[in-house]
Each structure stands twice: as C-alpha cells, then as structure tokens.
Specification:
The chain is α+β, with helices and mostly antiparallel strands. It is about 40% helix and about 15% strand. The radius of gyration is 20 Å and the shape is globular. β2 and β3 form a beta hairpin. It has two domains: about 140 residues, no CATH class; about 120 residues, no CATH class. It starts with a strand and ends with a helix.
Length: about 280
C-alpha cells in the first residue's frame, strides 16, 4: 500500500486587506474542522457565535444565506465536500525586500488545490489572473500515482487540469481517426468518458481514504474546466467514490467493484462532454 499526496507551494501578491482576510479564512477553516472546540455551546450556536465574531470583510465575502441555517454556508462552498473544510496547507504573510507589498506564501503536502483556488478567486482579487502548479506524489513508485497539474484563476472561472488528463487528451487526439473528411478532431481540454471511467477504476485500488480524496479532486478539476463547477454532478460522483471507499479490502490490498457500480460514473462523463 502507498500513501498519496497532493503537494503545492506558491506565492500570491496581496494587499494588506487581502492578507488579513486570507489569515482569517484559514483560522475559520480550522475552527470549523475542530467543531468550534473553544465555544461551550451547541454546534450550530457555536457556529453563529464564531461567525458573529468574524470581520466585516469576511462577512462581505461570505455573506449569510437565507436558505441555510449555517451562517458559514457560503464559506463552505469553497470545498466540494463541505463536511471536510480543510485546505491541507499552511499560510504565512511575508514582506519582500523589493518593497512591492505583502505576499502570501501557501504550501502544503496534502493540499486541497481546488479549495485553495476558489479561496484565491474570492479573496485575492488584486492578484487575478493568477495561476499555480501542484504535484501528485506517492510514497512508492507505482504506475499512475505520480503526476501534477496547474490551475489558472480569473474573476469568473478556474481552469486547468492534471498532467494525466493532458496526456490522455493528447493521445486521444493523436489516435483519433476521422471517418469522414468533415469530422472534427477531439478538442484539447475535452473531458472524455474514457478518462473519467479510468479514474473510477483507479479508485478501486486505493485503500487509503486520503488518496481517494486526491483522485476525486483531480476529477473535479477535469470537470471544472468547462464552466462553473457542476456541483450536483460532483456531489453524485463523490457519493460513488464514498461507496467505493466503503467496500471491503481484500488480502492483496484492493477492492472489487460490484457489477454496474461504474455505470453512473460513465453517465456523468457523458454529461460532462455536453457541458
């Protein structure tokens, strides 16, 4: 069995206000993950008390929602899984010697790069457009468990993908054989059913929950290239991942998928093709 991680390290130029808000967001995520341990109240009351103590800048960036009792609902939308609000990274604010203003240094070995990208989009407006890279590493040199990728963030979208998807798409393009002269080649960046299905098969071999989350995050990045993140599809795909993750582990460290378990994953891939 191997341990898989998503690693990243990058610097974002920020204003003083953005730097303060970034620090507050990291602190809020830690408080929520810890179920507000320092407030002797029921969890929802503790959340309300914590939100009330947040700055005006935080409340303006992540305002209350009329359809949600949890005042942090907008903040939790940074994560695909709101029950796991962890950036998996550390933050420090530095003042470079060139006098150009503060920079945020973000680095982590179990990073949720999609959540970090969404946070930068919300908070670091002065830095946009902005991009950073990430690496997929493994404690063992196994095929398919090493790679990386990038994310580019603008005011309106987050685009990018992993080296696995880029390589797969390039190979699909090279191997495509048009049946007619007016047939169109596979477009770069197209999210094909084969790639998503391959991802789902890979999940079956993972015995580490964190690894499953990392593979799921890669899938999320692939879907997010085409428009706003299709949240309903991602939630459903997360459910498929969870069901796979709950399957018993065999003596050889793998899981055997039940017949038809990937059918809906293939349907989601087909829908992604049409986005």
């Amino acid at each position: 069995m191997s341990n898989n991680y998503i690693e990243t390290a990058f610097i974002v130029p920020v204003t003083l206000g953005e730097a303060s808000l970034l620090e507050e967001c990291f602190e809020a995520a830690a408080d929520i993950s810890g179920r507000f341990p320092f407030l002797p109240l029921e969890e929802m009351d503790a959340a309300k008390a914590c939100y009330a103590a947040c700055s005006d800048g935080f409340k303006a960036t992540f305002p209350e929602r009329d359809d949600e009792e949890d005042l942090f609902a907008n903040f939790l939308e940074l994560w695909t899984d709101p029950d796991f609000p962890c950036f998996g990274a550390d933050l420090s604010i530095d003042s470079p010697s060139d006098g150009k203003g503060p920079v945020a240094f973000i680095r982590g070995q179990e990073a949720d790069v999609s959540a970090l990208a969404s946070l930068i989009q919300k908070v670091c407006k002065s830095a946009l457009p902005f991009g950073f890279e990430w690496a997929a590493v493994s404690s063992k040199l196994r095929p398919g468990e090493l790679g990386g990728g990038y994310l580019v963030i603008t005011d309106t979208e987050i685009i990018g993908g992993s080296t696995h998807w880029l390589m797969t798409e390039a190979l699909q393009t090279l191997r495509a054989k048009p049946e007619a002269s007016d047939s169109e080649p596979i477009a770069a960046g197209e999210c094909g059913e084969e790639a998503i299905t391959d991802m789902a098969r890979q999940i079956a071999s993972y015995t580490n929950g964190a690894a499953r989350i990392n593979v799921y995050n890669s899938t999320k990045l692939a879907l997010a290239q085409y428009a706003e993140t299709p949240r309903a599809l991602l939630k459903e795909l997360a459910g498929i991942c969870d069901r796979i993750d709950n399957l018993p582990i065999n003596d050889d460290g793998t899981r055997i998928l039940r017949a038809g378990m990937l059918d809906r994953a293939r349907e989601i891939a087909t829908i992604a093709d049409d986005i």
